[in-house]
């Protein structure tokens, strides 16, 4: 058992390049959180607000990832469980927000949604490209990659929702996208939790 623990725990730590990429991702996500929370409120868009909360959660996730980089696989796996909890909470929160907007009948501003959605897409694609080479690492690396991938997909969905809101004159496209984004977050949380538990089991 000691040898097995040693072998599992002796995987090479992420390099300095990965650390720099995480810092870039953290800064980009923190800035985009501020941008999207402001314009999400201004445009009454639940999908933009969902994306802003997602950016905040990702900034926190990148910060946690930076903290645990040099630590053991066991600690990194436990950190991944925390991050999975963030993703699951985000998903549930967005579902609740979508229901609230449905009840109140708020109509979002399609033009603001599309412009901010494009900006967010550019930011997330840039981060995802930087992280692509590390997508098959441990659960901690995988959770970072999944967050970035889901963010880019979510941005595309926001842009599609903006077109739908403009074309139909209703909030339904915005609400549908919010539900899709919540589903992505919950699915990613499950995947990361499953891998992290497997890593804890083998330590």
TrEMBL record:
Keyword Metal-binding: no
Membrane topology reported for the UniProt record: Multi-pass membrane protein
MF term (GO), any: monoatomic cation transmembrane transporter activity
Gene3D superfamilies xref list: Cation efflux protein transmembrane domain (1.20.1510.10)
Localization per Swiss-Prot or TrEMBL: Membrane
Alphabetized InterPro entries for the sequence: Cation_efflux, Cation_efflux_TM, Cation_efflux_TMD_sf, CDF_Transporter
Keywords annotated in UniProt: Ion transport, Iron, Iron transport, Membrane, Transmembrane, Transmembrane helix, Transport, Zinc, Zinc transport
Stretches assigned to the Cation efflux protein transmembrane domain: 22-200
Keyword Cell membrane (UniProt): no
Family assignment from sequence similarity: Belongs to the cation diffusion facilitator (CDF) transporter (TC 2.A.4) family. FieF subfamily.
NCBIfam families, A to Z: CDF
Protein name: Cation transporter
Protein's organism: Cellvibrio mixtus
């Amino acid at each position: 058992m000691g040898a097995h623990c040693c072998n599992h725990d002796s995987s090479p730590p992420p390099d300095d390049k990965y650390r720099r990429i995480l810092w870039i991702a953290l800064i980009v996500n923190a800035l985009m959180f501020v941008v999207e929370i402001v314009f999400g409120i201004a445009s009454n868009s639940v999908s933009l607000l969902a994306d802003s909360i997602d950016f905040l959660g990702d900034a926190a996730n990148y910060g946690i990832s930076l903290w645990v980089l040099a630590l053991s696989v066991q600690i990194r796996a436990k950190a991944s469980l925390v991050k999975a909890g963030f993703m699951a909470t985000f998903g549930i929160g967005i579902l609740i927000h979508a229901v609230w907007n449905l009840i109140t009948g708020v109509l979002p501003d399609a033009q603001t949604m599309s412009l901010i959605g494009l900006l967010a897409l550019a930011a997330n694609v840039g981060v995802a490209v930087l992280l692509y080479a590390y997508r098959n690492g441990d659960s901690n690396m995988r959770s970072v990659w999944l967050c970035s991938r889901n963010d880019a997909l979510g941005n595309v969905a926001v842009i599609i929702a903006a077109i739908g809101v403009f074309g139909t004159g209703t909030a339904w496209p915005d609400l549908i996208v919010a539900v899709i984004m919540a589903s992505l977050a919950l699915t990613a949380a499950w995947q990361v939790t499953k891998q992290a538990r497997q890593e804890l089991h083998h330590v």
